[in-house]
C-alpha cells in the first residue's frame, strides 16, 4: 500500500484513555457525572463566559438555541446556504421556515445581502420584523463560522440590532477562533451573538465521539436550555416535570473524552495554524488556484484548509479531481451541497445566491488533521499539482 493522507482524523495523544476508563470504573457513563460539569467549566473558562451547557451533539445545541430564541411554527429564520445541513434542520424541527443567504469571500454569510433582504423583503413593525411575501415573523439569524473562518460579526450584529433579530452563532467548526481587532477584539466565536453552538463530532477540532455545547449571552437562557436538555426535570426524586423536555444532555463518557481533549485544544490550534502556514508557503506561487485566506483582524483555529481552484486553468469536474486525488493517496472533499438545493429545502426562499454557487465549484478541502507532518503536506501539495496538471491536459 502506498502513502495515504486522510482528510481529518481525531487525535488522542493525551489523557483520553485514562479519563474514559475512569468514568467506566466509576460506573458514571450516562447523563450524570463529574466529567460533564468539568468539561462545561473548562469550556466556560476557555471562552471567558459564565456558563456552557454540554449536549449530545452540535445539532442538539443549535435546536436548544432556536427554542430559547422563541422560534415557533410559522416563524422565519435566516440561514446560510453554505453550511453543513445541521445548521438548518433544527429550524424545521420548530416548524419554522429558513430563508437562505449567500456567502461572501470568506464562505460565511454575506452581511450586505443580509441587510438588503431585511430592507427590501421585510417590513419593520413595532413588535419585530415581518416578511412581505407571507407575513411571517423573522425571529433569528443562524451565522455559521465556516471552516473556522469568522463571519463578519460587526456588520451582522449591527443589522440584527437594527431589525431586532436574535443571533445564533454556529461555532461548531470554530472553537478557538477569535477576533483580534475591532469591536469584538479578544472575543471567541460563539460568544458574540445571543447564542453560540459548538460540536465535538469526530471531525471537529476536538471530539467527544459525538457531542456539543451551547453558550448564551443571557445566563437565564443558558440555565433554561440546560433544564430542557435534561427532560425538564423539576424534582429529581419524585419526577415532576413542568415543561416538555429533551434528552439532549451529554454523557459522562463523552465528557471524559472532552476533558482530555480540552487539555490539548491550545496545542491543536497551534498545529492547525502552523500546518496552514506550511501549505500557504508551498502553494503561494501555484498556478492552479490559491489557499483561502482567513478574515483579517482575526486569529482563526484554521480548522479546514480550502484550496480555491482557478477555473480558467482547471476545467475538470470537482468529482473527477477528488476521485483522482483519492486514488493517488490524498483524501479531500468539496464544500457541501448547497442547502437551498437539497430536497427538503427546494421550496424555501433563497435570496440572490451567487457566490455560493461559484465557490461550490471551486473549493476542495485539503487534509488538515492535527497530527499531519510537514512531509505529509509536501506530499499532498505534490499530488495535488500533479493531478490538476494531468486533468487540465486531458
Ligand atoms: C458539525 C456541524 C454541525 C453539527 O454538529 P453535530 O455535533 O454533528 O450535530 C452543525 N453545523 C456545522 C456547520 C457543522 O460543521
TrEMBL record:
The keyword Transferase applies. InterPro entries: DegT/StrS_aminotransferase, LegC-like, PyrdxlP-dep_Trfase, PyrdxlP-dep_Trfase_major, PyrdxlP-dep_Trfase_small. GO terms for molecular function: transaminase activity. The keyword Ribosomal protein does not apply. SUPFAM superfamilies: PLP-dependent transferases. It comes from the Bacteria. Keywords: Aminotransferase, Pyridoxal phosphate, Transferase. Coiled coil: none annotated. Belongs to the DegT/DnrJ/EryC1 family. PANTHER family: BLR5990 PROTEIN, TRANSAMINASE. This is LegC family aminotransferase. It comes from Roseburia yibonii.
Amino acid at each position: 500500500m502506498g502513502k495515504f493522507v486522510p482528510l481529518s482524523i481525531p487525535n488522542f495523544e493525551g489523557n483520553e484513555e485514562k479519563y474514559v476508563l475512569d468514568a467506566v470504573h466509576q460506573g458514571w457513563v450516562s447523563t450524570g457525572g463529574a466529567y460533564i460539569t468539568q468539561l462545561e467549566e473548562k469550556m466556560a473558562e476557555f471562552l471567558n463566559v459564565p456558563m456552557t451547557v454540554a449536549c449530545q451533539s452540535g445539532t442538539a445545541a443549535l435546536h436548544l438555541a432556536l427554542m430559547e430564541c422563541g422560534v415557533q411554527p410559522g416563524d422565519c429564520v435566516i440561514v446560510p446556504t453554505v453550511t453543513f445541513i445541521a445548521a438548518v434542520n433544527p429550524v424545521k424541527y420548530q416548524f419554522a421556515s429558513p430563508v437562505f443567504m449567500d456567502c461572501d469571500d470568506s464562505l460565511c454569510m454575506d452581511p450586505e445581502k443580509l441587510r438588503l433582504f431585511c430592507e427590501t423583503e421585510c417590513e419593520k413593525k413595532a413588535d419585530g420584523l415581518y416578511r412581505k411575501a407571507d407575513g411571517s415573523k423573522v425571529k433569528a439569524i443562524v451565522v455559521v463560522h465556516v471552516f473556522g473562518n469568522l463571519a463578519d460579526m460587526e456588520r451582522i450584529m449591527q443589522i440584527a440590532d437594527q431589525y431586532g433579530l436574535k443571533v445564533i452563532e454556529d461555532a461548531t467548526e470554530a472553537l478557538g477562533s477569535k477576533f483580534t481587532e475591532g469591536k469584538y477584539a479578544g472575543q471567541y466565536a460563539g460568544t458574540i451573538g445571543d447564542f453560540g453552538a459548538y460540536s465535538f463530532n469526530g471531525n471537529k477540532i476536538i471530539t467527544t465521539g459525538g457531542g456539543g455545547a451551547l453558550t448564551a449571552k443571557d445566563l437565564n437562557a443558558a440555565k433554561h436550555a440546560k433544564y430542557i436538555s435534561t427532560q425538564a426535570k423539576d424534582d429529581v426524586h419524585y419526577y415532576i416535570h413542568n415543561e416538555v423536555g429533551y434528552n439532549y444532555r451529554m454523557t459522562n463518557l463523552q465528557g471524559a473524552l472532552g476533558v482530555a481533549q480540552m487539555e490539548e485544544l491550545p496545542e491543536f490550534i497551534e498545529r492547525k495554524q502552523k500546518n496552514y502556514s506550511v501549505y500557504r508557503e508551498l502553494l503561494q506561487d501555484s498556478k492552479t488556484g490559491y489557499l483561502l485566506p482567513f478574515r483579517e483582524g482575526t486569529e482563526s483555529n484554521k480548522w479546514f484548509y480550502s484550496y480555491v481552484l482557478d477555473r480558467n486553468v482547471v476545467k475538470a469536474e470537482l468529482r473527477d479531481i477528488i476521485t483522482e486525488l483519492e486514488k493517488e493517496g490524498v483524501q479531500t472533499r468539496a464544500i457541501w451541497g448547497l442547502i437551498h438545493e437539497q430536497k427538503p429545502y427546494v421550496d424555501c426562499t433563497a435570496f440572490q445566491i451567487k457566490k455560493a454557487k461559484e465557490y461550490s465549484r471551486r473549493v476542495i478541502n485539503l487534509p488538515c488533521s492535527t497530527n499531519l507532518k510537514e512531509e505529509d503536506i509536501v506530499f499532498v501539495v505534490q499530488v495535488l499539482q500533479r493531478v490538476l496538471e494531468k486533468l487540465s491536459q486531458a
